[in-house]
Design brief:
307 residues, mainly alpha, Leucine-rich Repeat Variant, 19 helices
């Protein structure tokens, strides 16, 4: 099927949207995006939502797919849900041309869901800014925008907590204070975000708190603590993460497996090898991926395989 024919098919609400067809929207260039935009407004709202939803699912399963140009075009959609889904779909994008549109959504959009999604997707660029992978002025724009949202008295909780998670990469005394206040606030959701932010900060000074929270009675807190251990990458946290492999909550178990893969080291590797024998398909698959991550970090050029 030609791209023109598929565009026409997308406008027909009687035709079922299939993943195989949406693959044609990956990597669209300027003229193709303009053509799609010409038809986009004629597609019913529920169908536009479904299209963006499906593309997000595809990207999660296959990082080689690139729907960034479509997602970016959808940031201007008149429907709140489409804009929010599109902004969230850009979470893993490293295209710096979307920084300003995301900042505009974060600061100006009327929808709290859109603002929260924009805050999440700016998180990757915050990390890139700290690594010197975006222009200094873009990094400063991101930091200022996130701080503005955090400081707003009338901002909703979801947007504030996502902004705290994203700003954490700009590790500074001001950001450290924001994380501490969120942790001590008493709101369980803010506490979750604070622990996640501790990991994002890459500051080992948070390690005692993160280790302590691996023993929390709240599975959501244990999940974030495991994730933070992985992001901090300190081998001292490995025994505490290993203890979570037998957690009652399956999501905590999976977070622990991923964390061990991120931390690496011989102890993590042995624990992950044991995970392969647990008889749980999800755990085994995650453990295989984590072991591959460790092997790559140990030998990124693949010299061991050649010898």
């Amino acid at each position: 099927m030609t791209l023109d024919n598929y565009f026409s098919e997308l406008t027909d609400p009687e035709i079922v949207i299939k993943h195989s067809g949406l693959l044609q929207l990956s990597g669209l260039a300027g003229p193709e995006i303009i053509e799609l935009l010409g038809l986009w407004s004629t597609i019913p709202t529920e169908r536009r939502r479904e299209i963006v939803d499906r593309m997000t699912e595809l990207v999660e399963d296959n990082l080689d797919l690139d729907f960034a140009s479509v997602f970016r075009a959808c940031l201007r959609d008149k429907d709140d849900q489409v804009r929010a889904k599109a902004a969230r779909g850009l979470e893993d994008s490293d295209d710096r041309t979307i920084i300003r549109p995301l900042i505009d959504l974060l600061l100006k959009d009327d929808s709290l869901e859109v603002r929260a999604s924009a805050a999440v997707s700016l998180g990757k660029f915050a990390v890139m800014a700290q690594d010197g992978k975006v222009l200094k002025r873009d990094g400063e724009r991101i930091r200022v925008a996130l701080m503005e949202v955090i400081d707003r008295d009338d901002e909703n909780l979801e947007t504030r907590r996502r902004a705290i998670e994203s700003v954490a990469s700009f590790n500074s005394p001001q950001v450290e204070q924001i994380i501490k206040e969120a942790y001590d606030d008493g709101n369980p959701e803010l506490k979750q975000s604070a622990i996640y932010a501790m990991g994002q900060s890459s500051d080992s000074a948070w390690m005692p708190i993160v280790i302590q929270e691996t023993q929390s009675s709240d599975p959501a807190i244990r999940y974030e603590a495991a994730t933070a251990c992985g992001n901090l990458g300190e081998e001292d946290t490995v025994p505490h993460v290993i203890a979570l492999l037998n957690d009652d909550d399956s999501l905590v178990q999976l977070a622990s497996v991923r964390a061990l893969g991120a931390i690496g080291g011989s102890l993590s590797k042995r624990a992950l090898q044991q995970c392969l024998l647990m008889g749980d398909d999800a755990i085994e698959e995650a453990a295989k991926n984590a072991l591959e991550e460790i092997e790559f970090d140990d030998d990124p050029m693949g010299f061991s395989a050649e010898s």
